[in-house]
């Protein structure tokens, strides 16, 4: 039985967003972004066995980001953001475009990323000082 959802199925999540989801404190680019991020987090946490696809390109969270232009992050012009995703994938032993349950993806990130990895991944984030990490 397929669940009805306003999100893709499986829901597409950028690898580095697995960190953002855990540290989200209600800050963001604007109110639309903050609302969407909160909704997606609630959606995923309501059923942690829900399948997600780990991606290195725009995902469900990016849809209200002002940096998203024609389905591409304007910050990806130098592959900066994609490098963060690849770092998370490589160090968490996840697979790009792999399908995994949300809870298993979070466990992989939390068990495999070291503090120095998180520092590299999050160092340029606007909200690093407001995050739980």
Overall description:
This protein has five helices and five strands. By secondary structure, the protein is α+β, with helices and mostly antiparallel strands. β3 and β4 form a beta hairpin. α3 packs across α4 and α3 runs antiparallel to α5. The longest helix has 16 residues.
List the helices and strands and how they pair.
Elements: E1 11-14, H1 17-23, H2 31-46, E2 51-55, E3 68-69, E4 72-73, H3 80-92, E5 99-101, H4 102-112, H5 115-122
Parallel strand pairs: 1-2
Antiparallel strand pairs: 2-5, 3-4
Helix pairs in contact: 3-4, 3-5
Produce a short descriptive summary.
The chain is α+β, with helices and mostly antiparallel strands and 133 residues long. The chain is built from 5 helices and 5 strands; from the N terminus they run E-H-H-E-E-E-H-E-H-H.
Kindly state the number of beta strands.
5
* Subunit arrangement of the protein: single chain
Main sheet, how many strands, which sense, barrel?
A: 3 strands, mixed
Low-confidence stretches: none
**Number of helices in the DSSP assignment:** 5
Order of helices and strands: EHHEEEHEHH
First-last Cα distance: 37 Å
Helix/strand/pairing category: alpha+beta
